[in-house]
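Thread: quick sanity check before group meeting

JM: Hey all, I'm pulling together slides for Thursday and realized we never actually wrote out the predicted structure for the chain we discussed last week. Dropping the sequence here so it's in one place. If anyone has concerns about the input, flag it before I start.
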Amino acid sequence: MKNQKIKIIFDRTEPERLDKYLVDLRIQELYSRSFIEKLIAEDRILVNNVPVKKSYQLETNDEIDLKLPDPEPKEVVPQDIPLHIIYEDDDLAIINKPAGMIVHPGFGNPDQTLVNAIMYHFGENLSTGREVNRPGIVHRLDRGTSGLMIIAKNDLIQSKISDLFAERRIRKTYLAVSTGVPEPLEDSIETCLTRSMSNPRKICVADEGKWALTHYRAIKLYHYFALLAIQLETGRMHQIRVHLAHVNYPILGDLLYNTRRYVHSIVPENMKRKVTELLTTKLLRQALHAWRLEFVHPLSGKLIDVQAPLPEDFIYCLEWLTRFFGTELDTQSIDSVLDRELKTKYDPREDI
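JM (edit): ok, ran it. Output follows.
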């Protein structure tokens, strides 16, 4: 990635120091205050196309342009990090990524990533990847999202799997806990998505963005919350998180597209403390899990249908919802709900 450029529109009403504002945004590429100060000193951060000092007071609608230096080339090293392998053959593996693990090295995250882990476990049996220092990586999950990822062991399978994604012949089912019970209980969300100009960490709905389509269905109901099964027609960055927030049912625990204040606003007064306890001690990320993958193996022709067990924090969240927000109209256990979902089979060969 050469000379990555980022544009930000300052949309706050009160003036604010440039360096403080950029630190507060918590953009991954701007990983420390000292790095931000270095960029300002090197005139790599301009305001309204003019070099400024770090103490510059930003005004509403100021345009901030950042030109990041090329990352210093570093060899990605194998690291003995535990991997939960769900499926494996000679050409690919499917792993269950834990929440909190970053997929590949980047600014401020040089190691302890999924790439470091698969390099240790699979050695040279990995594709070269679509980008430098990303062997085996075909698609991504956000850091705070857990669940299934396909790892390519050679360049041929990498190309074939990429084609399946492009042709929408890989069915991915996510599980998510929504803040609020969606109305209707089953629907599709279709918008265009692009990077936010006021916060580059966020994606927003905008006419000039890329087309995105999400299907959701409520599979278990609680008072004020719901467990959703979600399928994607497209794979845009943060797509599920942005789409559910767009229709005012943001994912519980999402620190970027939801707030504790919003969750408090929909629950009874006497439950606000319980919500705070959950979101500060148990559920420390978005309640989003890439649960199931279904596709035809592009080389063997075998129908692959795998699921990733729910992680402990997700299970705790669902048990917490049953305890405090359970409804007499929906007494099904989570196991029975997921067993019912597994009976819904999808055979991509029917689309060929």
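AS: nice. The longest strand covers residues 210-221. Residues 36 and 153 are 38 Å apart (CA to CA).
JM: adding both to the slides.
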